[in-house]
Amino acid sequence: MPRDKTANHHKIMAAAKEEFMEKGYEKASMRGIADRCGLTAAGIYRHCRDKEDLFCQLVAPAEVKLKRWAKEHMLRYEEPVKKGRKVTWQDSNIDMMRDLVYPDMDAYHLLVAKSKGSRYENFLHDLSEESQNRFLAYLKGLKKAGVKTPEITPGQLHLLLTAYITALFEPVVHHYPYEEAVDALATLEKFFLPGWKQLMGI
Asked: Which of 97, 117, 119, 165, CA to CA, is 20 to 30 A from 66?
């Protein structure tokens, strides 16, 4: 009777998630994952190259979704500038957390709290850097289009974005239940959004 590789793959991924959630990437082991799913280590290696590949299979879809949202988010602000229209407030990272990240808390918790030792261990730092670069490019586009832009240095922007992104992801780091995370987000929204709007003159 042929083996059901799809069923085995689901078993491996579920066991890997348990192992990484409990021990983190650094302390997790392929042997531990094998024991959890009742397969041999050799059986697991038919589904991945190594431990990091297995971790990537779990978290890469979440990373892709977040980066796609961020790209589309910036386009919604860049397009009006390119077409000579007034920039209006549309959405924010608050919406990203509420609609994308918090409903998929486990995957993002693995990314930001359990990834030490993997290529994702600086995920939040890298996210802040990418956000800063996109924001600076956006400000440059505004200035080129003759739109008044805030007087802010890259260093000051780095401070603001690091504080903002760290605060948004704290419920993920601590794996809040969804309802508690959304309640916390309402407080962050009241605190941060007026400041961003004032900074941008929106």
From this structure: 117
